[in-house]
Amino acid sequence: MEYRRLGKSGLKVSALSLGSWVTFGKQVDMKDARALLQTAYDAGVNFFDNAEGYEAGESEKIMGDAISALGLPRDTFAVSSKVFWGGEKPTQLGLSAKHVRDACDQALQRLKVDYLDLFFCHRPDIDTPIEETVRAMHQLVMQGKVLYWGTSEWNAQQITEAHRVARQEHLTPPTMEQPQYNLFVRDRVEAEYRPLYETYGLGTTTWSPLASGLLTGKYLDGVPDDSRLSLPGYEWLRELLLNEEGKERLDKVRELQSLANESGLSLTHMAIAWCLKNPRVSSVILGASRLSQLQDNLKAIDAVPKLSLDVMEHIDRIMANRPAHPERFGQ
User: Fold this and answer.
1) Other beta carbons within 10 Å of 275
2) Mean pLDDT, residues 31-43
3) What is the CATH number of the domain that holds 80?
């Protein structure tokens, strides 16, 4: 396993991490969660990602119970939560000082830990001043409940504003952002955030490296019954695959599959390794509903050296979506 600094912080996280979105509490029970966490941990994974909004907190409960049952030493792993979607009542939503504090306390209880290593603002909140949210996060840091706080799917302007407020008010600034990043979704990580890496030392823990399974190739012949696109509540994912843009994406997946075959790689490994080639990515979050799936995905780190400059350029030609002025990576 490779370990990378979380932006400019001193925390080193595994290049591949394990997340629980869609899986824990939906497809994965306590027994399966224990096996997944143990396998990831044994492979060197030291970062486990979660959120209050994942299965209404059930995902955190399962992860907390599994970590406790495994007896993992607290100083050997980092765990996260996110705040925004805590319930239906007004005080259970958004990034108000009250909800930020309540969400943190509840996450600690569900995850069975004394502090969160990482705590993310799951989305920007247009109804709450950024200063209020920054101050609330700073207070959690001062109380020892959170070590590093960050954002998820905030735009560059919002992140910049959070840093401005933190600097002006002498508060703890955000350390990291959790954006979607894969072969189909590139602009934010490669272009929009470009000034933030040097200016603020932004770290990134990216999600959906396989574009919700699209980049595994398993949807080339239809939607398997056991896939997340068949799960109740995730019909929107299925619709994204079946619309006109989805069909165009499948055509690109077929081309990528051919390139992967020529390169002696699986499409899954090539897609994950492509994300890892970007040095601005601190950690790539994997999701898995089966042990065999996780075991295979973890092998993607061995595929990184096989992505030569020629292969990376071939991928760019297939995708035809490289940002106009991105940071160079992949050499």
Assistant:
1) 24
2) 95
3) 3.20.20.100
Determine, yes or no, domain membership for 36: yes
Instruction: Tell me whether residue 90 is in a domain.
Output: yes
Sort strands 3-5 and 12-14 into parallel, antiparallel or unpaired: antiparallel
Q: Are 179 and 207 in contact (CB under 8 A)?
A: yes
Contact 213, 253 (CB under 8 A): no
DSSP state of 147: E
Closest CA to 184 of 220, 213, 145: 213
CB 219 within 8 A of CB 241: yes
Q: Is residue 54 annotated as part of the catalytic site, yes or no?
A: yes
Given the DSSP bridges, would you call strands 47-49 and 116-121 parallel, antiparallel or unpaired? unpaired
Q: In this structure, is residue 150 part of a structural domain?
A: yes
Instruction: Give the helix/strand (H/E) hosting 138.
Output: helix 130-142
Task: Give the distance, in angstroms, between the CA of residue 134 and the centroid of all CA atoms in the same chain.
Answer: 21
Model confidence pLDDT, tens digit, residues 140-197: 999 999 999 999 999 999 999 999 999 999 999 999 999 999 999 999 999 999 999 9
> Which pLDDT tens digit goes with each residue over 84-95?
999 999 999 999
Active-site residue, selected from the candidate residues 54, 181, 200, 219: 54
Does residue 320 fall inside a structural domain? no
Residue 298 exposed, middle or buried by CB count within 10 Å (0-12, 13-18, 19+) = buried
Q: Which of 105, 18, 15, 112 is nearest to 71 (CA)?
A: 112
- So what's the pLDDT on residue 327? 63
* Residue 196 structural domain: 3-212+274-305
The full DSSP string for 10-54 is S-EEESEEEE-TTTBTTTB-HHHHHHHHHHHHHTT--EEE--TTG
d(CA 21, CA 4): 23
Angle between helices 130-142 and 97-111 (to 10 degrees): 40
Q: How far is residue 37 CA from its own chain's centroid?
A: 16
